[in-house]
Design a protein that fits this description.
With 306 residues, the chain is of the alpha/beta class. It is built from ten helices and 14 strands. The strands form five sheets. Strands 1, 2, 3 and 4 form a four-stranded mixed β-sheet that branches. Strands 8-6-14 form a three-stranded mixed β-sheet. Helix 3 crosses helix 5 (83-96).
Length: 306
């Protein structure tokens, strides 16, 4: 048993290992709410967390005055004192050594704020220091990662939405009471603890649960949207204005590259077309690692009981 325990060492090998390890980080180091891990190709301009053994050996040889090395570089003492020349040579050593490509582990993460709403942990820009949570997570994963795994931490994406529904009550039922029960059922169905990265939303299942509420005779529709009620001819019914997003994709001018621009409500996420994403009663998630979040459910769930 001792040998078996030593061999395991709680190493992270699969994506499930990394996800479980990240979620198991003690709360005193930071709050991780959601995580999605994928094995990706490392970018060509990525700088590993430590130098390769080939680079270390080359530096040791240069420091000992061995300016001729097996990779064909011939450096003078003056070159060694020139940081630019030495840096170029070291880069060349790493390439010519035939080093294997690093296995890239990209983890998209989201956190909670004080109201238990999802928030992005933005990467530092403009020379700002690294976020303390990111630094703690890197240090926490270091003893558990494989030697050839380089880990990149990215902020996940948040897609906020509202819900519009229409149902019919039995003649004997109190319609206002039935409406409140329907709203509560929808809020419970979209509890943020149940939502994960790249998780589809089964509208047909939600409609089935609404049908189980005492007093509900039929459910006309349930519409997930960020603005208009696209399941109703009268689009003004249940309209969210302004839309439930902060960032929207803006295509580039004259066929140029586009970009995400903030032009909506502060505190909300990215714009998403629920109408185009619904297929046979299922809202398909985007390819980009994202989490659907019903934010402010007391005002973003609207409906009628007839």
């Amino acid at each position: 048993r001792a040998r078996a325990n030593f061999a395991s060492q709680n190493r992270c090998v699969t994506k499930q290992d990394y996800e479980a390890r990240i979620m198991a980080m003690p709360a005193k180091f930071g709050n991780i709410a959601k995580v999605y891990v994928a094995r990706t190709q490392m970018p060509t301009d990525y700088t590993p967390s430590g130098p390769s053994q080939a680079v270390i050996d080359a530096l040791a040889a240069l420091m000992n005055g061995d300016f001729t090395n097996e990779f064909g570089y011939l450096l003078t003492e003056q070159d060694v004192s020139n940081f630019g020349t030495l840096s170029t040579a070291i880069d060349g050593l790493a390439v010519q050594a035939g080093l294997p490509d690093l296995a890239g582990i990209t983890a998209w993460i989201l956190s909670y704020n004080n109201n238990k709403n999802l928030v992005r942990i933005e990467a530092p820009t403009g020379g700002n220091p690294e976020h303390l949570l990111i630094r703690n997570l890197k240090n926490y994963l270091e003893p558990h990662r494989l030697l050839t795994d380089e880990i990149i931490l990215q902020p996940g994406y948040i897609i906020n939405f509202g819900v519009i529904f229409q149902a019919y009550a039995h003649k004997h039922a109190n319609k206002q009471d039935v409406k409140l029960k329907c709203i509560q059922k929808i809020i419970d169905y979209f509890n943020i603890d149940k939502m994960q990265f790249r998780q589809p939303i089964y509208i047909s299942q939600l409609e089935y649960e609404l049908m189980g509420i005492d007093g509900v005779r039929a459910v006309d529709y349930v519409c997930l949207t960020q603005s208009n009620n696209w399941k109703e001819t009268n689009v003004a019914v249940g309209y969210f204005n302004p839309g439930l997003w902060l960032t929207e994709w803006s295509p580039g001018a004259n066929g140029g590259a586009g970009d995400w621009v903030p032009n909506g409500q502060s505190g909300y996420g990215y714009k998403f077309s629920f109408e185009e994403a619904e297929q046979g009663g299922v809202i398909l998630p985007p390819v980009t690692p994202s989490v659907f979040e019903l934010k402010d459910p007391t005002i973003n769930v609207k409906g009628k009981v007839l």
